Amino acid sequence: MSNEHSEPGHGDSPAAWTAVVVMLVGIAAGTVGLFLHFTYPGSWDILIWAGVIVLVVGAILGFVLKRMGFGVDGSRSVSKASSH
After folding, report:
1. For 14-72, what is each residue's pLDDT tens digit?
2. Which of 26, 29, 28, 11 is nearest to 65 (CA)?
3. Of 14, 30, 20, residue with least CA distance to 68
4. DSSP string covering the chain
5. Helices 14-39, 45-65: crossing angle, 10 deg rounding
6. Nearest partner of 37 among 29, 25, 45, judged by Cα
7. Which of 5, 47, 55, 61 is 20 to 30 A from 31 (CA-CA)?
8. Is residue 83 scored above 80 in pLDDT?
9. Taking Cα atoms as reference points, which of 17, 4, 29 lies closest to residue 61?
């Protein structure tokens, strides 16, 4: 029996990590804006829409970084096999 396991690379790359972190910041900002909108009087819509914009920018950033070679098995990313 062979114990060799082929890793499909589920997004463990600089492009994926950057996209996820930026998108999480957008989700956090939107969530805080939504909470403040329903809790305190005033217009918190700007924070909600800023979160939406950051979320979209994160997705675009991940795509651009992947195309630049920072994705899984990209020319500029370091694979786990070569780092051991």
Report:
1. 999 999 999 999 999 999 999 999 999 888 999 999 999 999 999 999 999 999 999 88
2. 11
3. 14
4. ----------S-SHHHHHHHHHHHHHHHHHHHHHHHHHHSSS--HHHHHHHHHHHHHHHHHHHHHIIIIISTT-TTSPPHHHH-
5. 170
6. 45
7. 61
8. no
9. 17
